[in-house]
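Final report, results section. Input specification for complex C-07:
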Amino acid sequence: MSDPGPFSQVKPVRAYEAIVAQFDEAIRSGAIRPGDRLPSERELMRQFGVGRSTVREALRVLQSNGMVRSRPGDRRGPEVVSFSTELLHRPMEALLNVGQVTLYELIFFRMVTEGSLAGLAATRSDVDPDGVAQLWSLVQDLKDGAARGMQHFLKADSAFHEGVSRVAGSSFLAVQNDVVRIAARNYLATNMDTPVRRSDYMTRAIESHELLVRHIEAGEQHAATRMNHHTILAHYSVFFSEDEAARLRAFFLSGEGG
Amino acid sequence: MSDPGPFSQVKPVRAYEAIVAQFDEAIRSGAIRPGDRLPSERELMRQFGVGRSTVREALRVLQSNGMVRSRPGDRRGPEVVSFSTELLHRPMEALLNVGQVTLYELIFFRMVTEGSLAGLAATRSDVDPDGVAQLWSLVQDLKDGAARGMQHFLKADSAFHEGVSRVAGSSFLAVQNDVVRIAARNYLATNMDTPVRRSDYMTRAIESHELLVRHIEAGEQHAATRMNHHTILAHYSVFFSEDEAARLRAFFLSGEGG
DNA sequence: TAGGGCCACTGGTCAGACCAGTAGCCGAGG
DNA sequence: CCTCGGCTACTGGTCTGACCAGTGGCCCTA
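Structure output:
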């Protein structure tokens, strides 16, 4: 029918979902803030006029969404939580594991976001000399970590990426990128066993990171972005088909300065 | 202490969390697939050896994460849901709400992701002529919508963005961008009341979208990306300080072809 | 003032009940 | 033989009350 009429579709709302909606709105509006305590479950059942198990089901949803946490025995009541990236890890890894999101899409996204972070860091290096100095320190940590083994290196590598994000100053973009970076790493660890010569990998990664810091320090936005793209492609293209690698290269490294 | 010893930290695991973990593993390993039905709650309580309310709490978590759904009276049991990138919507929104992301960061992120979507659509236009034809149709819908008013226009505008994302073929990137685009729109609706001459806004938006489709149709990746950046900046820079607008312009539109 | 004990509250789990909703089976009628 | 309606037994949603481990905070004693 061309004219749908004055009504819209309705769907029954479950009591615990209505409770979640009230909480969502209270958090969105700032009426409830991270660090706040909620009333106890028994008090919430009185306020909402529902059974305690209905309150608990709503709290499970909020907890699952990373909004609240509770501890048995804590008399102060459930706590409203500061945001955590754990919130995104679960769905991200679930999507990867069922193949709804491919490694290709993940790496594409990462190149978009991490390349932008690198470029952004370069534009801000002049206002954050301490941050840049810290990047050099983190490069040294990379070398120290590599000498101790892959686990230490990976830890130092994460710290390095966090350092770049701090200089870039966009925590939202950084969070998105971190979730994707860690999801890709975990995916490869559990689903792929393409042997990579670890010492070669670490050596080349360190070289790339040093060059990246040079571009950042010099304020070279586009060079920093390209350096990041080169590094990611160098690492991941072994996991892609030739066609996929070519498409990434064409999209990110074509044209200017290519 | 420098040497942590042979043990690692432990934390008590709640029964419903242990149930969720078993489900996660079953989904990850493919033992449970989208479309499958789970045993009923009463059967699950027997299998896990726990109370029905504990099962229900676990199911709330899985449902909240977009993995299962249920309907009262459905004798076939809870259903495992097809996983889609929609899975990310809720945690992304939660992240935005709790994380108190600024409008500047939202727009920065959107320019990064939407610019890439536009460029990606341009690189794929030759393999998706139907998609491009549909974009022209959606541009016509924009014009029709604008004639009927802002609400119709905004609806057509969302459809247009979804059309671009379809041509781009990265639902992952699209979902991220959609969450942010809608969040920015909602932010403006609730926090700003700078009057924008609506007819001017719609007219200019339509012109920009037409130009964007031209670039996409011509396969001009960088031009499509820049067009998208121009459009977003033209719309949002009124909400930023001169310094902020200048920084966005410098980052996204400097250098090549600037 | 500090530490330990205790109490009353907390959250986690459970059993059982009730009710609205639905899948599917069976029978009747066309 | 097919379709439709009625009915049954199961489903999920909600609730009440109970029990127990855990904890915050108060009070008392050294």
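Chain A has a mean pLDDT of 87. The first helix of chain A runs from residue 15 to 29. This concludes the modelling results for the funded period.
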